[in-house]
Design a protein that fits this description.
alpha/beta; Rossmann fold; UDP-galactose 4-epimerase, domain 1; 2 domains; 7-stranded parallel sheet; two-stranded parallel sheet; 10 helices; 15 strands; 16% strand; UDP_G4E; isomerase; NAD; UDP-glucose 4-epimerase activity; UDP-glucose 4-epimerase
Length: 325
């Protein structure tokens, strides 16, 4: 088995690469390094620097390495920024996914795990998100991920009568945190963990955006899942596809319970040993009180479980970030 990981030099993709290796599956990486880092790709793993918009490059890479499936992680992942850059978002996430599927067809590759997002749900008005909830994305990013899922679905229908039809699944998740390898850490300027880490390293005080929400401690409750668990679920999905086993079209990789922003801040102080009291800022427009997804289907089919406590999520992320200095 050899699987291509698009975006395999990024934070999540690089963890998927390592999880594939641990499972005895040979990975190949394509990444344009727009947000990834060549140093995140393990030594010995074939790495092609290039864009997923380059169909021939993708198809040639698949043929050269005997690829049997694709884990499609590459994409423009900043929901807030996507509102200002919708055309770029659609190019990277919609056209990019179309080109990946076209290259797979060119190369005779029939299995794909799509790294989707819980952003496809928008801001649901239920406390626990299930896969069948109506899709109401609230940003071009969420829309682009939903369209990506439609592309997989439609290509699956189109090839259903072929000798080898497209087999696919989409994995939806919210906030990915922590590290399962000290050489790989989250470098996003938009995610809570790296924002807090950078503040603490600079001797500054992190901020909570609003503390008057309808939650036990007044701060937003969100779904935080460890990147090691996310990567493992991608690999099990790939194995199920390769083995021809039944698989759902989409799975939530959810925590079931969620964590509040204040709980995260408390864990940050405990784990880092830096005593601080976060500043309270104004609410951000459109922030719902609580969004948490169930992971029951993924637990049934993908060995999905939360293996890390909040302190372990913080500790692994903090150690990897500090190791980067």
């Amino acid at each position: 088995m050899t699987w291509l990981v698009t975006g395999g030099a990024g934070y999540i993709g690089a963890h998927v690469v390592r999880a594939l290796q641990a499972a005895g599956i040979a990975p190949v990486v394509v990444d344009d390094l727009s947000s990834g880092h060549a140093s995140f790709v393990p030594k010995g793993v074939p790495f092609v620097e290039g864009t997923i918009l380059h169909r021939a490059l993708l198809a040639d890479t698949m043929r050269e390495h005997g690829v049997t499936g694709v884990i499609h992680v590459a994409g423009f992942k900043y929901a807030g920024v996507s509102v200002q850059r919708p055309l770029h978002t659609y190019e990277q996430n919609v056209e990019g996914t179309r080109v990946v599927l076209a290259a797979m067809a060119d190369a005779g590759v029939h299995n794909i795990v799509f790294s989707s997002s819980a952003a496809v749900y928008g801001t649901p008005d239920v406390p626990l998100v299930t896969e069948d909830l109506p899709k109401r994305p609230a940003s071009p990013y969420g829309e682009s991920k939903l369209i990506g899922e439609w592309l997989l679905r439609d290509q699956g229908v189109a090839t259903a009568s072929d000798e080898q039809p497209l087999r696919h699944t989409s994995l939806r998740y919210f906030n990915v945190v922590g590290s399962a390898d000290p050489s790989v850490y989250d470098t996003s300027p938009h995610n809570l963990f790296p924002i807090v880490f950078e503040k603490l390293l600079a001797g500054e005080t992190p901020q909570i955006n609003g503390d008057d929400y309808d939650t036990p401690d007044g701060t937003n409750v969100r779904d935080y899942v460890h990147v090691g668990d996310i990567a493992a679920a991608h690999v099990v999905a790939a194995q199920r596809l390769e083995a021809g086993e039944p698989i759902e079209a989409a799975y939530n990789l959810g925590s079931q319970n969620g964590l509040s922003v204040r709980e995260i801040m408390d864990a940050m102080a405990r784990v880092t040993g830096i005593d601080f009291t976060p500043r309270i800022g104004p609410r951000r427009p459109g922030d719902p009180d609580r969004i948490v997804a169930t992971g029951e289907l993924a637990a049934r089919d993908l060995d999905w479980t939360n293996r890390y406590t909040v302190d372990e999520m913080v500790r692994t992320g903090w150690e990897a970030r500090r190791a980067a200095h």
